[in-house]
Amino acid sequence: MRVPYRKVKIVATLGPASASLDVIRAFVTAGVNVFRLNMSHGTHAIHAQSITWIRQVEKEDGHPLGILVDLQGPKLRVGRFQDKSGVLLKDGDSFVLDLNENPGDDHRVSFPHGDIYPHLTPGSLLLLNDGAIRLRVDQATKDHIQTTVMVGGILSDHKGVNVPGGNLPIKAMTDKDLEDLHFALQHPIDFIGLSFVQRGDDMRELRSLVGTKAAILAKIEKPQALENLEDIVALSDGIMVARGDLGVELSPEKVPALQKKIIRTCRALGKPVIVATQMLETMKEHPFPTRAEASDVATAVYDGADAVMLSAESATGQYPLEAISMMGKIITSVEEDEFYLSFLAKMGGIANHQVSDAISAAATQLSYTLPAAAIVTYTALGGTARRVSHKRPSCVIFGMTDSLQTARQLALVWGVYPTLVQGVHTFEDMQAGALSMVKDHGGESGDAIVFTCGVPFGNPGSTNIINVQVLS
Fold it and tell me: Where do you find CATH 2.40.33.10 in the chain?
């Protein structure tokens, strides 16, 4: 039968290069499943307009789309400079970071994060502008940090600062994050991403604020998060491997192995995982990626990621649609590799000793043995579809649900084609609707279809039926 779309999903960040209804419509046609709104940039009015456009395209297309609101988090940044083009810091220069709000120059700049000053010691490193500039701390007092420039460069307004290896006493959410979260929860969004997560308690705090209004994702970009990885994954609805800051605070050569570790942990605990940052970086300025970038995307797919993400490529780049198209081509190429699914099978998946998990495993095994054209799960909150997804079957997974929120959240999950249905009250209703849907997607007479659901209906987490039907 005709597979509705790729198993690995595409997340695209919106920005100035993609801020229009027509571009969003083109993105969906090219294969975008989830849109990311980056709260580090843009106003609430701009993001509200983007949400309106996405939901309009969703209505036109008739297929659920996810929206991820990505909170900025406690990002450390320098202040402003007198010269808007920035200043040149030279190797060996002295440079001061302080609490003075006046615009900076080539001797000093504001660094309004006084709570971390006492935790810096002589010899500590400060990495600025994604690690391009390196400062060594010589002395830290309550109101300034005296440093020596180890690696110089141009430093301009509001560039980020990383403190590698530092377990800093910073809150998981800033006042800005709380304002942005309040805004987000007033709109039809599906995921909240928390930046710079360090411990499980960060996700507990976010959960207490979000409740059931949205799924919560932890962005892994701090070394401290790796020390608490299983706890963070267990407390999250999904994970983003945010390789930008992770690659700044850790040596670059460590990131590939850590990416694989994070994906394995998510697979083991049954949580969807996004691989993000600089995947097709060259395509910000060129219509084609490098071979290394294409291999990077392919590696994430081979590793078992549920989704891959575009950041600046689709938000501010010169070739946003081409980047999405290229991402799709790379995914398709990997998924057509005869060894792809066998690679994923060797990695395993969730192995909880529960009835619903056993049924999901059996449904996947049946899909191979028959072989089946599709697995159809009827799910209230998406749990059944996610369990089947993490077994990585070869056929398409139709995630049928009467919840629009669930359908939109399933747009992020590997291999799941979310389908919104109404008026399903019995197993017979579900089965009849599913068979009709499979036929609409190219199912042919003689195709075997595997069904999973729970009865009585409307009781989340009660998956207890597996059934096979053959299309007539």
Answer: 76-162
Pairwise CA distance, residues 9 & 328, whole Å: 9
Q: Is the dihedral of CA 381, 9, 59, 47 positive or negative?
A: positive
Task: Answer for the pair 13, 452: CB distance below 8 angstroms, yes or no.
Answer: no
Show the tokens assigned to 173. Answer: 């959410």
Which residues 6+ apart lie within 8 Å of 137 measured at CB? 120, 121, 122, 123, 124, 125, 126, 145, 146, 147
As given in the structure block, the two tokens for residue 278 are 């600089």
Q: Which CATH number fits domain 350-470: 3.40.1380.20, 3.20.20.70, 3.40.50.720, 3.10.20.30?
A: 3.40.1380.20
For 116, 275, 323, 417, the CA distances from 9, given in Å and listed in that order, are 39, 11, 14, 10
β-strand partners of 70: 38, 193
List phi, psi (to 5°) of 48: -65, -40
**For this structure, is 387 an active site residue?**
no
CATH topology of domain 76-162: M1 Pyruvate Kinase; Domain 3 (2.40.33)
The ranges of the chain annotated as CATH 3.20.20.60 are 9-74+172-336
Active site residue 36: yes
Q: Which of 25, 77, 213, 261 is catalytic?
A: 77
At residue 353, the pLDDT reads 66
Length of the chain: 472
SS3 (DSSP) at 85: coil
Per residue in 252-301, pLDDT (tens digit) is: 899 999 999 999 999 989 899 999 999 999 999 999 999 999 999 999 99
Which residues partner with 215 through β-bridges? 191
The CA-CA-CA angle for residues 331, 334, 335, to 5°, reads: 85
Residues 6+ away with beta carbon under 8 Å from 333: 298
Active-site entry in 277, 282, 379, 406? 277
SS3 content of the chain, % helix, strand, coil (to 5): 40, 25, 40
DSSP run (H or E) holding 256: helix 255-269
Contact 223, 165 (CB under 8 A): yes
How distant is the alpha carbon of residue 324 from its chain centre? 16
Superfamily of domain 9-74+172-336: Phosphoenolpyruvate-binding domains (3.20.20.60)
77 tagged catalytic: yes
Catalytic-labelled residue, pool 6, 7, 9, 36: 36
Cα separation, 411 vs 388, in Å, equals 14
* Catalytic residue list contains 6: no
What are the pLDDT digits (tens) for 366-377? Answer: 999 999 999 999
Q: Which residue ranges in the chain fall short of pLDDT 50? A: none
- β-pairing, 94-98 with 87-89? unpaired
